[in-house]
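Hi,

I'm pasting everything inline rather than attaching a file, because the server keeps stripping attachments. The sequence lines come first, and each chain or strand is labelled.
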Amino acid sequence: MTALIYLDYAATTPVHPRVLQTILPYFSEEFGNPSSIHRYGQAAEAAVETARETVASVLNCRPEEVIFTSCGSEADNLALRGVMLAARADGRRRLLTSHAEHHAVSKTAQHLEAHFGVSVGWLPVDEYGRVTPEILRSALTEETALVSVMLANNEIGTINPIPDLAAIAREHGALVHTDAVQAAAYLDVDVQALGVDLLALGGHKFYGPKGVGALYVRQGTPLLPQISGGGQEGGRRAGTHNVPYIVGFAEALRLAKEERQARIEHVRPLRDYLIGRVLESIPDVRLTGHPTQRLPNHASFVFHEVDGNLLLQLLDAAGFACSSGSACKTGQPEPSEVLLALGLSRSWALGSLRVTLGMYSTAEHVEAFLKVLPGLVEKARRLSTLEG
Amino acid sequence: MSRVVVAMSGGVDSSVAAALLKQQGREVIGMMLRLWSEPGKEDSNRCCTPDAITQARRVAAKLGIPFYVVDARKTFHETVVRYFLEGYASGETPNPCLVCNRQIRWTWLFEHALAMGADYLATGHYARVVVGENDRVKLLRARDQTKDQSYVLHVLTQEKLRRSLFPIGEYLKAEVRQMAEAFGLPTALRQESQDLCFLAGEDYRAFLQRHAPQVNRPGPIVTRRGEVLGRHSGLANYTIGQRKGLGIASPVPLYVLAKEVTTNTLVVGTADELGTMELIADRVNWVSGEVPSGPFHAQVKIRYTACLAGAEVMPLGDGTRVRVRFEAPVRDVTPGQAAVFYAGDEVIGGGVIVPV
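And the predicted assembly:
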């Protein structure tokens, strides 16, 4: 098959070579269990605690406020379940979240509502997918225990005004969680500046390994553990530490901060050029998400009357790995809830395309992509209307 | 290097087809049609269940080929399922697989394959294509005569056959199974079934009852002489040649001879009334693309599972209709099924049997 050009860095990223080098010894020589008394254990514990300090310094928090998890979804789950179940003690049962959240948050909220007596308020979003301060203010009540709004949207790249939202929530005595899984590769995740009480991260979005995440929990936040067992992570998340991945997670996050400006300067001009060319060269196309308040590597579109899945298959066969709003590998596409929440009709929302750039993206990649896209959109459009 | 899209079902035949193409050094892309199934019955559909998709994906991964599932539910429902319901409404016994092959596989999927840049569409059918004189493509019966599926492929035109590959048509089913093992393909033996994919393993009558209850009204059972013998439960519940389940006490066995939809009458008779010497077929496809200049002798198959019967085939009018005269009476000639004409192994053409 044709060689593939990877344009799906929002789905996942390759492990950075420096991260990989950092990880490798912890599979073999440094294989100890951090909970063990002996020196193998001590070395492993030191590695985990050093990683925790590194993460804390990026997040601008204390090391003990960082809980390592198995992924971003687990971090989101721990935040929502842990806080909402603990909050039942003081009678706060209301959870506010938006229509444009990742499923790790929205499905968890639905689950809490269906099985744990939590009352969920769904915040509408504006046409760019943002929760505005006005929207949040009108929804907050004395009953609100937690507000969960993502820092940047995975599907449409839009950045939410988290510091403003957090300030308003705090006025009402509510805790604030933000899913920063997609954001952390390019945005500052300083929890003090953001003003949040909980923040979720996933390693593989910023050139770290898959299968490791972290949750920041502000000191003093009541949190009911969701995995019980050994006393790891201050008793808040049991399970033997995944030492190599935790080490890799921390190194990747450190690099993301250190190289942030350079990485942004690499992808943003390419991304801007890509968006401009797509909008001017293809009929019946719209940019989804905010034109400027968006992740710098993120471009997302909808094409009218195009089967988005089919377009992805055509792109893949032509040598370009992209994504859509609602990844579907079973041939049963449903429009993304996020795109519908923006007010798009079904015939637009089904035709979504997400192109996300990263450290190995080049101008040649973008140029080659722009060369084939119009023809493939045209093909997909023709096939989408093909009846029998 | 030619690029081939292979229609994969997760089953052993299409898996081996993909493996053979890959072995030939072609650039292979696996595709699976997501066909319509009744809401709530997706798991028991005969094809494209989540299990089948997973199986096909495993095969594709094993072969190192890309694999895509394409959503054909809407067009399948609008063409194949509608044809099925309309067929029963008009008193016929429709063969939706023929429509599926023509409209879904070799139109809809074919177009998708071309859009993928493919030169060929391959399937796991047991049949063969060879290029003959004047660059004309011939459709032949499979080497494994017991598995031959050329009957359901007679709808294909030269343009489609030229771009079609049937990699397992040269092999016996037993050989295909051996190759599957040799290729290391997952060969979990799934139930092979002749049932229609969207019936989800249940009887077509229950499906009709839900989707077109109006087509199935009770009416009289009569003989050729007009003698009323009883009541039928709805014409769609019976098949030509059916003996059991008529609910009539008779000194000799009775068989369904015909279904008269205008009077909602089921005509029955004895075994010697069952044979037919002649049939008319409509919507005929001539595989060569050319209408034969006059009557010709052929072996004719009137159902997928029927035996070949010697006959004279006479093109009528512009050749989209034919009259078929059998050399000896043929049982169970059923409107809605196809009559397919063979010369030796070669498929000359075929059409849909119409009521006379």
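The interface with chain B takes residues 1, 307, 309-310, 313-314, 316-318, 329-333, 379-380, 382-383, 386-388 of chain A (CB under 8 Å).

If the labels don't parse on your end, tell me and I'll reformat.
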